[in-house]
Write a structure and sequence with these properties.
By secondary structure, the chain is mostly beta strands. It contains no helices and 11 strands. The strands form 2 sheets. Strands 2, 4, 5, 6, 9, 10 and 11 form a 7-stranded mixed β-sheet that branches.
Length: 116
């Protein structure tokens, strides 16, 4: 059984920062990439950022220069540092783990609200 547990969401004012964490546990083999997706009300889930086991990163255009993804392989944890947050960043953020065989695991989601 694989579990992804997210933490770090909350309410922040525009221009503020938050750091999301996602810890993976269980029988985990051959991870291809870990990443973060988000889903705002009435919108489709979208990729925010991802990082491969080799350290290659990919970001949505809307967060480039503001968000940074990183991972600690020993702790099987992925982080998302979010700076200069905007109201349009408000969404439920989901941790994702993509295995080499193409299987996806998802976290339960954490709410991020950017509002004054």
């Amino acid at each position: 059984q694989v579990q992804l547990v997210e933490s770090g969401g909350g309410l922040v004012q525009p221009g503020g920062s938050l750091r999301l964490s996602c810890a993976a546990s269980g029988s985990i083999f051959s991870i291809y990439a870990m990443g973060w997706y988000r889903q705002a009300p009435g919108k489709q889930r979208e990729l925010v950022a991802a990082i491969t086991s080799g350290g290659f990163t990919n970001y949505a255009d809307s967060v480039k220069g503001r968000f940074t993804i990183s991972r600690d392989n020993a702790k099987m944890t992925v982080y998302l540092q979010m700076n200069s947050l905007k109201p349009e960043d408000t969404a439920v953020y989901y941790c994702n783990m993509l295995m080499d065989n193409g299987y996806n695991y998802w976290g339960q989601g954490t709410q991020v609200t950017v509002s004054s």
